[in-house]
Structures are given as structure tokens and as C-alpha cells.
Amino acid sequence: MIPTDTHDTGTCQRISELLSRIGDKWTLLIVRALGQGPKRFSALKRELGSISQKMLTRTLRNLERDGFVSRTVTPVTPPQVEYALTPMGLDLFCPIAALAEWTFAHADAIDAARHAYDARHPDAGYRPA
Amino acid sequence: MIPTDTHDTGTCQRISELLSRIGDKWTLLIVRALGQGPKRFSALKRELGSISQKMLTRTLRNLERDGFVSRTVTPVTPPQVEYALTPMGLDLFCPIAALAEWTFAHADAIDAARHAYDARHPDAGYRPA
DNA sequence: CAGGATCCGCGATGATACTG
DNA sequence: CAGTATCATCGCGGATCCTG
């Protein structure tokens, strides 16, 4: 049973909001890259490979706005911008790491559940109606 | 510093996938409702209020496929379908609860970071370019 | 180098109508 | 009651071109 009193609707939506941000296509990969230390824009882009410049910029902006990543501009030519995790950004990844471990530990069970479900519902290969 | 070796790109994407599911608009609210005990389709719909039938159905299907929720049909007229958390579904919400607590504890800091950012960037009220 | 501006496809979500 | 089917909308993410 899950304690409802500590999870009112408003709090729940707030958590959903954070999870949506963290769960988007690039955030985790970017944070993981920055977890190794501060990096410049093009270094991140190179490391992530397939990310578009737009999404890298947008994702970094969102992380910066929420206070998870810092952005340091050195005014020279050519420009130089370094991104780094803030203490809060680093701190967030304790609970995230716990979730990651859970995911890793249960990946097989989830796969099994999916295959079982798909076997029970042969009608038209899985499409999230 | 975040340990990179336990977070290769593939694992990271897998975690992102789970976070996306959990972080979508309705999943957490539905799971929270089911955390109080098994419930029928319309009971869930009534409790969530603003959700559409389509999204309730789809979200429940996804949760069922991943093995987090069970679906029990009693063949009578009118039909009767009960949804409940599986043991794995309940188990998942240990790490989720940890994340929830973190979010709750840092909500103010995040708000402050956002306001500070928006103040630093007055140009055209915030839009995630 | 580090973006900003623009156009586009697609999937998520929602609203409405219908059914066993 | 518990869905399915259809149509419309909206934002994500990608691709491309341009600039200080």
C-alpha cells in the first residue's frame, strides 16, 4: 500500500513534471556525460553523436533553468562555453541512480511481462492503441 | 562524480524509457490511485476527473503490458473490470518514493533557480526556444 | 565555436461519437 | 460499464541555413 497522505495530487504532478524532464530523450545522457566533469558545447555534441544542435541547446537550457547545470561563458573569439553539473544537479542523481539500479535489476522481468502480454494479445503486433 | 561504468549508453536509454513511461501525464496519478487498493475502470476515471477514456485505457494497457498492473475481467452484464498493482508494480514505487521525497525537499530550490533564471533572461517571457 | 531561426514529420493527448 | 474508432491539436525532436 502506498501512503496517500504524502502524495497529494499536486505533489504527484510536480513529481511527474520532474520525471518528464529527466525522462526525455537526452537529459539523462547529457547528465551522465557531465557527470565526468565540465564540458564544452561541442564536446558534448561530439560525445552524444546523434543529438541535434537544437535539442542539445534546449535540453541544456532547461537543465540550467532548473538549477541542475551551470553555464560559464568565457568571452573570447571564438566563444567558449562550459557546462557543468551544479551541486544540486549532482545530488539529484542519488535517487535517480537508485531508480536506475531498480530498472537494471528488473529489466528481464519487464521484458518477460511484455512478451507474455504480446503473446496473450496476438491481434495486430503491438501498437499502443 | 557519477560512476560511468555502471551507466553505459544502452542502460541509460533503457532507464530513460522507463522514466518516460512513469513520467508521462497520467501514470503516476493512476498508480497512486491504485496504491490504495484495486479499483474499477470508472472508479479510476471518476477519481482522476479530467482524464479522457482513451488515455486512461492506454495508460492502463501500458502498465499492464509492463507487468506493473493486473487487469481482471468478471464476465457479467454490465462488464466489470478491476485493476490492481502487481507486486512488481508496488515494488517499483520504493525508488519512485525516494525520488518523490527528493523532489518535495528540493521543490523550493528548483522554483528559486527558475525565477532567478527568468530574471536573468527577461527577453520575452520564458519559452523553451 | 556556440548558438538562433525556420520548416517539417510524428506521436502524445484530447474531444466526440459509437458499441457489446 | 468498459471500452473502440475517428478527428483535431500541440509540442518534441530532427534537418537545414544563418550569425556574432
* Mean model confidence by pLDDT of chain A: 90
Radius of gyration of chain A: 19 Å
- Bin the strand percentage of chain A: 5-15%
**How would you write the strand order of the largest sheet of chain A?**
1-3-2
- N- to C-terminal separation of chain A? 30 Å
CATH class of chain A: Mainly Alpha
Q: Work out the helicity level of chain A.
A: 55-70%
CATH superfamily of chain A: Winged helix-like DNA-binding domain superfamily/Winged helix DNA-binding domain
What is the CATH-assigned architecture of chain A?
Answer: Orthogonal Bundle
Q: State the secondary-structure class of chain A.
A: mainly alpha
Integer count of domains of chain A: 1
List how many beta strands of chain A DSSP finds: 3
The largest inter-chain interface, given as chain pair and residues per side, is: A-B, 65 and 65 residues
CATH fold call of chain A: Arc Repressor Mutant, subunit A
By oligomeric state, this entry counts as homodimer
Work out the helix count of chain A.
5
Q: What are the low-pLDDT stretches of chain A, counting only 5+ consecutive residues below 50? A: none
Summarize the biggest pleated sheet of chain A.
Answer: 3 strands, antiparallel
Shape of chain A: globular
Order of helices and strands of chain A: HHEHHEEH
